[in-house]
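Question: I have long wanted to understand how a fold can be written as tokens. Here is the record:
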Amino acid sequence: MFFDGLRKMACDTSRIWGGATEGTVGSAFPAAVGGEDGVPAWPPPEPVHAETAATSTSAGSIDKREVMASGSLGYGATRLGCLTASPPGKTVEAMSIREIHEALPAAMREAVDDFGVHLARVDNRSAHTVRAYVGDVVSLLDCAASEGCAAPADLDITVLRGWLARRMAGGAARTSQARRAAAARTFTAWAHRAGLSPADAGAQLASPRGHRDLPTVLRAEQAASLVAAPRRGDETPETRALELRDRAVLEMLYATGVRVSELCGLDRADVDDARRVIRVLGKGAKERSVPYGLPAQYALDEWLRVGRPELAKAGRRTARDADALFLGVRGGRVQQTVVRRIVAAAARAAGLPHTSPHDLRHSAATHLLDGGADLRAVQDLLGHASLASTQIYTHVSTERLRAAFKQAHPRA
């Protein structure tokens, strides 16, 4: 089983996942993390090529038995987590999703297991995408089974629309509905290619247009006060090291606009001091180069020269964390939750409203556009697959719009 294979690989940790300890799962498919600080347990393997996929099972994906025997589901899947046994503290949500999966007809259960392995190993989807899509497909198949469907071949557009209508009636957000529709289309397309369904039932399924709020953006002077804020009081060597780390983290987040997961995944080898460029491994294992400025360079140099050696003395890091750029207090790779606390604490110290690492990303992108940067260049820096994701920052670049209006309009 897809779930059981994940349990074998990822249930050997006592980490807290979304507020739940081992055996207490905070969501349907919690993200298990390896090592001290919430990063993949090892680098992603080489992606599966079309030739390999073509020789896989009739289900159109790699044989689960071979995958489970090898002890790895490839990039993302090793971090998917598991559904453990049912201790008293287990959440209702986690109980229900596993029970729904086990209660599905055999053909549907086998299909969703194959689909999960295919997403992780062949499509090389992220852990979050696999977790969300598999959970959505389990919900879809449960709805279909209640209407008399016994296999993926029984799905049709009426069943798919009925499932989405039920979720909408239950108060689901439009953005969640859009994701569910995407998951359903991905599953039905895969089932058709794999020969499990005579037609792609989801090809005609439309997605509701999700509402997008304008991102929270700091003014340039606010961002400057935030990155200068880290102060931890007493001047012990460890405290000084943490201050240097916090300052370097804030400078790098604002200077590069990288995601918090990308920042935590950086190694020292990813930093090119001579060119002031970092190598970032983003979504879908796509690599890009992102430049940073002199203030970030100064903060990074001081952290590497003074702060990092102090925290590295803790000696609690694993081999895969030995080259991590940013360390936690125990010497391992810094966790994403720690970075979020660093940013929130700096915002409070600077007298700013609550700020997240993603708010710094929004701010960096907006300030680049305000300064005259090309939209395509900002897209490349942020690692957006679609220009539409970057265009939202044009709506908050009011200063740039006002300057263009004053320069060009005869009545300005």
In short: The two ends are 67 Å apart (CA to CA). Strands lie at 271-272, 277-281, 287-291. DSSP finds 17 helices and three strands in the chain. The first helix runs from residue 2 to 10.
